[in-house]
Design brief:
The chain is α+β, with helices and mostly antiparallel strands. The protein has helices at about 1-20, 25-35; strands at about 40-50, 60-70, 75-85, 95-105, 110-115, 120, 125, 130-140, 145-150, 155-165. The strands form 2 sheets. Strands 1-2-3-4-5-8-9-10 form an 8-stranded antiparallel barrel. A two-stranded antiparallel ribbon has the order 6-7.
């Protein structure tokens, strides 16, 4: 009789343990899990350069639909890739630029960006005319936002909505 009760209790415990392991994560838990493991973030948003020299100094130059990628390189650095940006309405073409080696710290639900003295690249070549200083910002499951200076252009901002996340396999 004791053996039968022991077997029933063991079977009940195993059933409960199996149920707990097979309980699917909620969409919010899945999003947090994906964010915590993410190595790549893509955003679409607005880039703004205030007080552009030679233009109306009271109005910033803004550009919508700018695609930005943040790609984790190491445990403490990531690259920020900006596609099709301008610093001024007088710029004849848009450029693709990389801010390599931006520093970051990470928690379960936020990546905090920072950096100073970063030489951006265009086409793999250093572009030291626009050294990135005062970089600060954050990536969450919903947004990628940062502020920095590009050379003489201080207080530049980017605010984008996350459109893609890829996790480490």
């Amino acid at each position: 009789m004791i053996m039968k009760r022991l077997c029933l209790m063991l079977a009940a415990a195993l059933t409960l343990a199996a149920c707990n392991r097979n309980t699917p994560e909620t969409p919010e838990e899945q999003s947090k899990t994906a964010f915590a493991k993410a190595m790549y973030f893509e955003a679409l948003g607005t880039s703004t350069v205030p007080n552009v020299e030679g233009e109306n100094k009271d109005l910033p130059f803004s550009m919508d639909s700018v695609r930005v990628e943040a790609v984790v390189v190491t445990d403490t650095t990531l690259n920020i890739n900006l596609y099709g940006i301008n610093f001024s309405s007088r710029m004849p073409v848009t450029i693709d630029m990389v801010i390599p080696g931006a520093k970051y710290t990470r928690t379960a639900d936020k990546i905090t960006l920072y950096g100073e003295g970063i030489i951006p690249t265009m086409g793999g070549n250093p572009f030291d005319r626009y050294v990135v200083n005062a970089l600060s910002g954050a990536i969450t499951a919903d947004s990628l936002v940062f502020t920095n200076s590009y050379g003489q252009y201080a207080g530049c901002t980017y605010a984008g909505k996350i459109t893609g996340i890829k996790v480490k396999q």
